[in-house]
Structures are given as structure tokens and as C-alpha cells.
Amino acid sequence: MRIGLAGAGRIGASHAATLSVLSEVESLLIADADERRAAEVASALKGRAGSVRAAGTVDELFGAGLDGLVVAAATNAHTELVKRAAAVGLPVFCEKPVAPDIAGTLDVIEAVREARIPVQVGFQRRFDAGYTAARDAVVTGRLGWLHTVRSCTLDPAPPPREFIPVSGGIFRDCAVHDIDSIRFVTGHEVVEVMAVGANRGDEIFRESGDADTAAAVLTLDDGTLALISASRYNAAGYDARLEVLGSKDSIVAGLDERTPLTRAQETGGGNVYGSFQERFADAYAAELRAFTELVAGRIENPCTPEEALEAFYVAEACERSRREGAAVRVAAVRVAAVRAGG
């Protein structure tokens, strides 16, 4: 099949490398707002299994007779690209989010439904072996009934300063992965949140109305408590884990010899994960393989925009709770979104 890639930045270049060696992908066409960057990524991948070349513009990408489109461009370009693909009946893989806010996400969902094309959203933890094993342990009843879930996303260093004011905030940009994985693994919805944030680092976070460190307690619809911890300053390395504790047993995803945790009686160091791309390399590859299966019509969509919307509702509730200093019901966020759209 012929796949187009919109966006050749950090995650786009990584996706290009994966797509270029998938047996299902006969040719890969890459476009970026910076044409030189797209050309450099394409040139670096020459000689791979499939044909790889750069497109001069996004218009050229859409006129190339694609079978599927991977969207890895800047967040503010996601909505337009997904809706444009929907208008021409082109299946899409889109890095989260499909839109920067709830209203935009609802707009994309409506366009996708009308076009009747699949849009797979990039929540890669759904494809990580540890997270899928944790889900299986829950589904089979091995853990018994759940009482506590603990999830963390700890970045080794903040993102570029220019990204922070447009990121949507630590819950919408970062902890939304924890929210989605909690829903995915437990099979339950979040009904209420209580969240807090702190700023101990660069003033850009405070100036942007954001936090560099945050925590939240989520109450699920079966009474399970889920705790989320997120930070932009975990200098020991990149750390993403999910602990699921039940009445019979417990399980943890993301704990291995490269997890940046050191026992108190030992010294630090070692070959830790340096980035989210490194930690979830296999999961990123698995989700793109799934996309080619989706394009071929062999599987159901593993992560729809509707699923992403549910995680977004919870992230929005967390952000409101952080700002207001009070518990927020997710249903209230959903109702407010419907009223705003009506």
C-alpha cells in the first residue's frame, strides 16, 4: 500500500523509519512544513524495503493516490489534516490529539462519522506488551477486584519552551496518556477527579498557566481509585509505569532493568530510558503495523477518536480541578461541552 506521512519532526521521523520497513508499505511519501526537513528524512531512509521520497507540499501528498495517511505534524495542524483526509475518504492514523480542545475533537468526530472512514488515534501504550499484559490480567480476573491503580509519566527534561504555551497543559498533553491507559487496562470510566499542580522549575510553566509537576486522584465507576503522577523534571530518565493492585494479586507495567529507579541503599546510574520514543519503540511500531491492518480492512479500529475524546474529558476535568482547587465530576465537563456545542 501507499502511505503518506504529514510531519517529519521528532516523532514523524521515527514513524517514517518504522513505516519504511513494514512489508505492507510499498511506498512512503513524506511532507513537512519545512520541505528540507522532509527531504532529509526521506534521504536517510533510502535503500529501505519500500520506496521513500519527499513531497514538495501537503497538497502533493493528498494528490498522490494514497491508501492511508499518518499525521505527525504540529498539534495545531491535526484537525485540518484529519478533516481533509476524511473529505476524500482517506484512512488516517493521527498522533494525539486530533484537536487541541473538546469542541475541536467533537467537530472532527462528526466529520469522520459523515465520511465513514477510520481514524486511529496514537495512544501507543495500548500496544505496549506490559500494558496489554496488565489488561489481560484484569480481564481474566487474575487480580480479583481492583482497589488501586497507580500511573506515572515522568519526563527527563521539559519540552522546548516555545511548546509549553500551546501544549494544552500537563494534563491534556502529558497525563492524558495515563488517563487513556487507565481506561484501557481497567475497562472502567472515570467519574470524578481531584488534581493539583506545582511549579518548581522554569517560570515559563507558571507564565503559561501550566504546571511542571502534577498529581491527580481519579475515582472510577466501580469505586477503584487511580492515582496519576506527572512531571517535566525527572532527571534520572524517562519513566512511564502502571501498577494495578487487586484483591488477589498485583501487576506492574513498565518496570524493567532500564526503569530509572534506584534503590535507596544503592548508587544511581545505568542504561536508563532517555525518552518516550526509546521506552515505547516497540509500541510505536506495533501501532503503525495495526494501522496498515486497519487500512487493509483486516481489523477493527484499536483507538477511535471517540476513545480519545473520553480521555480528553478526564484531562479537562483534571485541569479544571487543578485551577479551581476542588473535585470535578467528568459528567459536568461532558454536559458543558454539549451545551457549548449546542
UniProtKB/TrEMBL annotation:
Family: Belongs to the Gfo/Idh/MocA family.
Domain Gfo/Idh/MocA-like oxidoreductase N-terminal: 1-123
Protein name as annotated: Gfo/Idh/MocA family oxidoreductase
UniProt key word Ribonucleoprotein: no
Domain GFO/IDH/MocA-like oxidoreductase: residue ranges: 131-251
UniProt keyword list: Oxidoreductase
The keyword Protease appears for this protein: no
The organism's place on the tree of life at top rank: Bacteria
Alphabetical list of InterPro entries matching this protein: Gfo/Idh/MocA-like_OxRdtase_N, GFO_IDH_MocA-like_dom, NAD(P)-bd_dom_sf
SUPFAM superfamilies membership: Glyceraldehyde-3-phosphate dehydrogenase-like, C-terminal domain (SSF55347), NAD(P)-binding Rossmann-fold domains (SSF51735)
